[in-house]
Amino acid sequence: MKPPSKRLWALEVPRGAYGLASLAFAKGMLARGPRGDGRPVMLLPGLFNGDRSNVFLRRYLTSLGYRAEGWGLGRNLGARAIGAEGDLLLDRIRALHNATNERVTLVGVSLGGIMARFAAHQAPDLVREVITISSPFAGSPRATNVWRAFEALTGERIDAPPVVARSALIARPPPVPTTAIWSRSDGLVNGMICHDADGRAVEVRSSHIGVQVRPQVLLAVARVLGDGV
Asked: 40, 101, 152, 177: which has the fewest Cβ within 10 Å?
């Protein structure tokens, strides 16, 4: 598969800004989200982003009644952030699991969703379900416009054997329920590699930048969580 067109790529920033602005008019829509049950939800940010990038999603899920928390590992720089085997991320998930005595739902944006699937494979006893948002887990990294940025920021080459092996594991269905929220008009990653036939898929219309602040995406996450109440 090919990466998104240059036209979609060029429109990413203005479309992302529009998505953020649309939050101001979405109060009624977001109020339709089903109430939560207090379960722990951990939000994993996208490449080079930190917990601040998920602040609107965290506040929304908290308002619905979930215990929504950031991952607390700073900016997402791949293995530099979570540890070579994901041990730092698993420690954070385990701590939230121990604090609540419940398995943790992982909601990951882009690279964060890929990491969420990796964690679910590594520790299914700690993870309740995985929700990915515009996460290109089901195809070649070259079907994106960001693979060079990934290499530069993480220090990992996409064709290095350890990265290839890890990607193959992530592409396999995790042993927990999964939902992929994706957009065919994504300008940074090919939307067709952001979902597969093994898990639930929810299509939205969105840019990649700012996808996690789109009212439609916030409501989609709430409805997926609500199905498990």
From this structure: 101
Given a contact cutoff of 8 angstroms between Cβ atoms, the answer to whether 130 and 137 are in contact is no
Whole-structure pTM value: 0.98
Q: How far apart are CA 76 and CA 206, in angstroms?
A: 22
Tokens of 175: 């042993």
What is the spatial distance between Cα 80 and Cα 83, in angstroms, rounded to a whole number? 6
The two structure tokens encoding residue 118: 């990796």
In this structure, the strands spanning 67-70 and 104-109 are: unpaired
Task: Order across the sheet with 67-70: list the strands.
Answer: 67-70, 40-44, 104-109, 127-133, 178-182, 200-203
Other Cβ atoms closer than 10 A to 13: 13
Write the pLDDT tens digit of every residue in 67-121: 999 999 999 999 999 998 999 999 999 999 999 999 999 999 999 999 999 999 9
